[in-house]
Amino acid sequence: METFIFLLFAGVALLFVALGIPLFIRVVPPNPLYGFRTPRTISDAAIWYPVNRVTGAWMIMAGVLVGLAAIGAYRAGLDGAVAAFINIAALIVGAAAMCVHGFIVLRRLTRAQPFRINAIQRTKLASKSGPRECAKKGCHPYATSTNRSPGEALPPSPHLL
Fold first, then answer.
1. Which has fewest Cβ within 10 Å: 66, 107, 111, 119?
2. Residue (of 133, 136, 134) closest to 121 by Cα position
3. DSSP assignment, residue 139?
4. Residues 55, 87, 73, CA angle at the centre, nearest 5°?
5. Is residue 146 classed as helix, strand or coil in its secondary structure?
6. Domain count of the chain?
7. Of 112, 127, 151, which closes a domain?
8. pLDDT-derived band of residue 69, with 50, 70 and 90 as boundaries?
9. Residue 64: is it exposed, middle or buried by C-beta count within 10 angstroms (0-12/13-18/19+)?
10. Residue 159: what pLDDT?
11. Same domain, 123 and 96
12. Greater confidence, 159 or 9?
């Protein structure tokens, strides 16, 4: 039983390392199947690659951690249930670190580029409603409305929140 647990988690460790390397070296393009997938990462390659580089690094580290835990539990001669618990704990810690750091990087990138996302939303809204309608709503920064004086600032748009 201990040998099976060792082989199972050694395989999981190798799988994590093998899946993390392409993400780390930035060869996986935005896709809905593999990587750190959120609407923001999938929609913008400038966000996808940095977030998935961090995710790939954590996947590699989690794989190494699980591999070391599997080797340590096997060499120590631990019971199958105890060895499985230790390996699952290592896997959960690595996966949690990967998710938390990925979301931290995603948040930093989207805060650093707020106008990039808003410009896309503005363009979509302007193309649906037209510039005159958008000017009345105050959602397009370059649209003008006869209801405002020339020096008056645009109101914040509810579409961009």
1. 111
2. 134
3. -
4. 135
5. coil
6. 2
7. 112
8. very high
9. middle
10. 47
11. no
12. 9
Cβ pair 84, 7 in contact under 8 A: no
Does the pLDDT at position 36 exceed 80? Answer: yes
| CB contact set of 92 (below 8 Å; sequence gap of 6+) | none
Same domain, 89 and 15: yes
| Alpha helical stretches, state H, 25-139 | 39-43, 45-76, 80-112, 114-129, 131-137
DSSP class of residue 143 equals -
- The answer to whether the beta carbons of residues 86 and 4 sit under 8 Å apart is no
Residue 108 and residue 121 in one domain:
no
Burial class (CB in 10 A: 0-12, 13-18, 19+), 26: middle
Q: What is the pLDDT of residues 133-159, one digit of tens each?
A: 555 555 544 444 445 555 555 555 444
DSSP label of 25: T
Domain that holds residue 141: 116-160
